[in-house]
């Protein structure tokens, strides 16, 4: 719809194009951008509304505090989820919008702006859905803190996601999956088991080495010497004192006396 010979018109964005401009040439604004809207009108009080392409003709969407404006400008932080008190928009339905000016209690717009596009992390500037598998631009950075040796773990994953081809970026935080938690717990258990195995092995080695050293020490000590005076005397028995048995027998017989018993 075009308004001709009307003193009211938009400055930013530009006034509507006749015929309608190519959507690929629309200005692009990202969720979170500051949109400085300006217009010119002889009216002292106007109302600013935002219109989504292909929405119901009876639907009127207002920006926050955009009713009964007395200044020819308005600053809007682009928001589509209604968190600013404005309307909620689904960009998957259509991401083309324009502004309209109304007189107070008016039923027809007195000025229309050219269309512009709004995009976010799920819809590109052409209104196409962004595949989820192309969202991550960098590998996620994972910081894991082991709070207990075997049971409690917490981790945080920070993943940087691109919003679109422009320089506007948005950070998205994701909670770790249960699989990641299980892997951390299993790693901790394996570490404890390996540590205990090494400690036991070292203890056994030390015990065996000590036992072996004790055996070697016992084998190198000389056996105790035992002495006997009788044995020593036998060893020291002089050769010249030894007499054969025959001589000893003769000596005994020579000293033998015979006594006769009375009859």
In short:
This is Yeast cell wall synthesis Kre9/Knh1-like N-terminal domain-containing protein. The chain has 263 residues and is α+β, with helices and mostly antiparallel strands.
Provide key terms for this protein.
3-stranded antiparallel sheet; 263 residues; 6-stranded mixed sheet; Kre9/Knh1-like_N; 2 domains; 12 strands
Which helices and strands appear, and what pairs or packs with what?
Blueprint: E1 9-12, E2 27-30, E3 34-40, E4 46-52, E5 61-62, E6 73-77, E7 96-103, E8 109-112, E9 116-119, E10 141-146, E11 153-162, E12 169-174, H1 178-220, H2 229-235, H3 245-254
Parallel strand pairs: 2-9
Antiparallel strand pairs: 1-3, 3-6, 4-5, 4-7, 7-8, 7-9, 10-11, 11-12
Domain Yeast cell wall synthesis Kre9/Knh1-like N-terminal: 22-118
Transmembrane segments: 183-209
Pfam families: Kre9_KNH
Description:
With 263 residues, the chain is an alpha+beta fold. The protein has two domains: 9-119, Immunoglobulin-like; 131-219, no CATH class. Helices cover 23% and strands 25% of the residues. The protein contains three helices and twelve strands. It has helices at 178-220, 229-235, 245-254, and strands at residues 9-12, 27-30, 34-40, 46-52, 61-62, 73-77, 96-103, 109-112, 116-119, 141-146, 153-162, 169-174. Strands 2, 4, 5, 7, 8 and 9 form a six-stranded mixed beta sheet that branches. A three-stranded antiparallel beta sheet has the order 1-3-6, with no helix packed on it. Strand 4 and strand 5 (61-62) form a beta hairpin. The radius of gyration is 55 Å and the shape is rod-shaped. Residues 138-175 have low confidence and may be disordered.
């Amino acid at each position: 719809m075009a308004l001709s010979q009307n003193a009211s018109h938009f400055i930013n964005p530009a006034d509507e194009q006749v015929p309608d401009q190519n959507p690929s040439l629309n200005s692009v604004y990202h969720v979170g951008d500051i949109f400085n809207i300006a217009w010119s009108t002889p009216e002292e009080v106007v109302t600013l509304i935002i219109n989504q392409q292909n929405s119901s003709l009876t639907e009127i969407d207002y920006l926050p505090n955009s009713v009964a404006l007395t200044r020819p400008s308005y600053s809007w932080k682009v928001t589509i989820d209604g968190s600013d008190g404005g309307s909620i928009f689904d960009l998957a339905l259509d991401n083309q919008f324009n502004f309209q000016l109304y007189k107070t209690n008016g039923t027809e717009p007195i000025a229309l702006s050219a269309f512009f596009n709004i995009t976010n992390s799920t819809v590109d500037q052409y209104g196409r859905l962004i595949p989820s598998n192309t969202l991550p631009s960098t590998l996620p950075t994972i910081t894991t803190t082991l709070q207990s040796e075997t049971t409690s773990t917490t981790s945080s994953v920070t993943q940087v996601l691109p919003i679109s081809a422009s320089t506007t970026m948005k950070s998205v935080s994701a909670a770790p999956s249960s699989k990641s938690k299980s892997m951390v717990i299993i790693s901790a258990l394996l570490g404890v088991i390996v540590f205990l195995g090494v400690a036991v092995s070292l203890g056994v080695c030390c015990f065996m080495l000590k036992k072996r050293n004790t055996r070697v020490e016992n084998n190198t000590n000389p056996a105790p010497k035992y002495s006997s005076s009788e044995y020593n005397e036998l060893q020291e028995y002089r050769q010249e004192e030894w007499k054969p048995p025959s001589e000893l027998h003769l000596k005994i017989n020579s000293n033998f006396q015979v006594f006769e018993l009375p009859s």
